[in-house]
Amino acid sequence: MTPGSDFIWFVLSAGGFILIVLVLTIWSTLFRSSRAKRALFPIVIVYAVCSVYGCEMFFVRTLGGVPKPLDPSQIEPGRRTAIVVLGSGSVNVESWDKRVFALVDRTAAARVLEASRVYKYAEGATVISSGGSPHPERRSTPTGETMRDALVTLGVPRDRIQIETTSRTTRDEALVVASMLADDHTEQVILVTSESHMRRALGAFRAAGIRPLPAVAREFPEDVALNRLLLPSEEGLAVASINAHEVLGWAYYWIRGWWQ
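RESULT FIELD:
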């Protein structure tokens, strides 16, 4: 799944767009191919539409609906509760003397912020900060570790946090976390992830024998400037790659029987 994900991320990126247009341009020039020339215009249109932030926001809301925050009344008091935060990624910065400073990326930041909000209503719950590195060879800090540090900064006691750093995919997270929850005799699970990811994540956890309450981390701001909403941008293209990853990932999980 990871190579496929990397391919999607590259194709729906500025670099992917430039490479595709360059290949078609060289092809049409060297081989006088009318097909390559005809393909250029629709490809540019597709990329332009995909890079419009508003289009991608509309796509997410069409699939999953407008998200609502987890209502505290949904949390049953007196039950052994775990808040599971799914990882997204870490940003590593290295100094000249090889010291590394690692932070959560923007998506993970939204997830830990929601987890800290939910913890206020489920105080005493265990928080599982989940996420390894999909590319161990790159030596990036596992997101489970950076999210733990962010959770502590946001007021969650360190001794209430467990980390999981072996997973590489959502499927891995579901299986590893399921084992951790069984060991802790957890009675109630709250799953925290982004709105575009929640559908696939819930299905993966249900397939692993867990039926969690969804706590959706805000992915899109309430007030978006009109130019940001309607004009093509690198940010819009980044959201398009997330959406493509989720749709194809959901289909793959469904085919493999990893989604319920």
